[in-house]
Amino acid sequence: MAVPSIKFDTAETLISAYKMPTGAKWSDATRTNAIARLREMGAPNKRDEYWKYTDPSALTAIPAANAALFENDETPMFDSIDRLRVVFVDGVYDPAQSDDLSGENVVIETLGDALGKDIHWAKDLFGALEADGQNPVPRPLATLNTAVASEGLVIHATGKVNRPIAIRYVHSSESSDAMVHHVIKVEEGADITLLESGPGAARFNSVVEVDIADNGGFHHVRTQGRDHERKTVTHMFARLGRESTFKSFTMTVNGVLTRNDTVIELTGDDAHATVGGASAGDGTGFHHDDTVFITHDAVNCESRQVFKKVLRNGATGVFQGKILVKPDAQKTDGYQISQGLLLDEDSNFLAKPELEIYADDVACSHGSTVGAIDDDTLFYLTSRGIPRQEAQDMLVLAFLGEAIEEIEDEALAADILDRMDAWMKRRQG
Amino acid sequence: MLEIKNLQVDLEEEEKTILKGVDLKIGEGEVHAIMGPNGSGKSTTSYVLSGKDGYEVTGGSATLDGADLLDMEPEERAAAGLFLAFQYPVEIPGVGNMTFLRTAVNAQRKARGEEELSAGDFLKLVREKAKALKIDADMLKRPVNVGFSGGEKKRNEILQMAMLEPKMCVLDETDSGLDVDAMKLVAEGVNALRDGKRSFLVITHYQRLLDHIKPDVVHIMADGKIVKSGGPELALEVENNGYADILAEVA
């Protein structure tokens, strides 16, 4: 059969194209193992069921296609808040632009520094949550990342971390092809906020592994850079302990290809996970895919998925979301909504919501809608003197706002909403 | 102020003529009422004046102070001074009432080349007007009309009218779905806006609203035309005898 051989040929091409870093005893075995796993599963291919709506070939092509830089004079995201700033330029940690990596209740190292040590606590997590997240659906691009990424942060939160860790990914070279891999451990009762912003590189592959112990909290807000030609694949693997909280929100505007995979396993009772996203796409080049897999493996846990996409001029939005409830995960409360707002007839929203439930005492609901701006509402606004374009933007913002309000920190949510508002006003000219 | 001449309108989607030559002239400061049975074209008149999609004007004209309304976008008509109070105000989740009001007020000011209201001035103004209509801070904060009762929605319409200060107000069955107290409150709000210059067109099924908003002229509409006009006594006649007598008389 031709298809499988392409998958495996591509995997070999990837393995030989990227060098596996060596030298760190604690990570060598993990990386060797990752390469073996990648060989076995093959590279993603558009004929894979999991890539049915998104063609991954631009994410696996060697070399990566160039992407023009996006020049703008806006204030960088999250600049107005008190945060610990870390900068990666084309995927490489830049100490000159970064704050001192120290904070109260948190130890932060670069992955490079951590790899230089003989032993490290990250050994138990690095590549481990990623490997766990391969079942039942393979995610080869994350495995590739585990095998070869040498940049990233290793973060250990031991208590309440007051300042968010704000990572900015600067795209500096048109031909950059970058991978970063972060490992985050949130100890019992600890709490941390991770902010990510920027395009990262012409092609950017990021993996975040986060392990949240009992009563821990992890908050994540991400805005993906507006470079029109960038290609991005991200994976977030999270494991949640008892009464822990995980909240992640991503805003995406522009970029030709974005695939955000979020894989969450609720392993302790009474844990809560929320994953949300708002995206706005313009043009046939825009393709944005949110893929979420949440496994309930404990009692009385709650999960929420809230995704909203506004699409125009032939843009495509994809949502694949699954809730898997294992036999013992009684009292599960699972909620999932994905909505597409199409501003014209050329745009597409493709959704595949799935529930797989093996416990008998659960409440799971899911909904997926696609629609246009309501004419009566638009008329109501224009009849009050609001110009049509401005009225439409108000409705778009209101639509996206329902996802943005999933962000727990109100100041961050307001920041995101204002940013979106400003972008739309700029379009109005 | 408002002058409608021989206005003829078809529904765009179906081959159906709704207005068959409406003539209406409302002078400065006047209050006119249109009454008429269901399907006579009353609401259509209000929609066509304010520029709703779905209608095709096949003949006639409508001008506001000489300006051709039918040639304008809905937002331009609003900036020119036309206001429609909706029979069924639309609920808009996610858009705060206050944001909506401020955007509308400032959009109109901008369109007229006036300076936009500052946040402080706007707030002061809206609080003052809201108080008179018994609209509390919570209603101003909530999304536009979402979860509002019928009475609250209509009061919210009048609040918009008060904030936008139009020259020509069209009220489309503002009394529908209101109890007597709510209707009085709405009517008081409207009467407070009567200043001898602002004109009103009140569309209603029932005479009782006209007890509270006293019209100068009452028109009876039937089958897409105004078939009879008269003083306030015409509304009483409708109330006592229904439309049948009048329609038989003009037929």
Characterise the protein shown here.
In chain A, β1 and β2 (92-93) form a beta hairpin. In chain A, 54% of the residues are buried. The model of chain A has no long low-confidence stretch (mean pLDDT 94). Chain A has a ten-stranded mixed sheet with strand order 2-1-6-8-10-12-14-16-18-20, with helices on one face. In chain A, strands 3-4-5-7-9-11-13-15-17-19 form a ten-stranded mixed sheet. Chain A is globular, with a radius of gyration of 21 Å. In chain A, α1 runs antiparallel to α2 (25-41), α2 packs antiparallel against α6 and α8 packs antiparallel against α9. Chain A has one domain. Chain A is of the alpha/beta class and 429 residues long. Chain A contains nine helices and 20 strands. The mean pLDDT of chain B is 93. By secondary structure, chain B is of the alpha/beta class. Chain B contains ten helices and twelve strands. In chain B, a hairpin with a 2-residue loop joins β4 and β5. Chain B has helices spanning 42-50, 74-79, 97-111, 119-132, 137-141, 150-164, 180-192, 208-212, 233-241, 244-250; strands spanning 2-11, 16-26, 31-35, 55-64, 67-68, 82-85, 92-96, 143-144, 168-172, 199-203, 217-222, 225-230. In chain B, the strands form three sheets. In chain B, strands 6-9-10-3-11-12 form a six-stranded mixed sheet, with helices on both faces. Chain B has a four-stranded antiparallel sheet with strand order 2-1-4-5. In chain B, strands 7-8 form a two-stranded antiparallel ribbon. Chain B starts with a strand and ends with a helix. Classes of the chains: A alpha/beta (429), B alpha/beta (251). The interface between A and B is medium-sized, with 23 and 29 residues. Chain B: Keywords: ATP-binding, Nucleotide-binding. Chain B: Residues 2-248 form the ABC transporter domain.
Structural descriptors:
heterodimer, A: 429 residues, alpha/beta, ten-stranded mixed beta sheet, 9 helices, 23% helix, B: 251 residues, Rossmann fold, six-stranded mixed beta sheet, 10 helices, globular
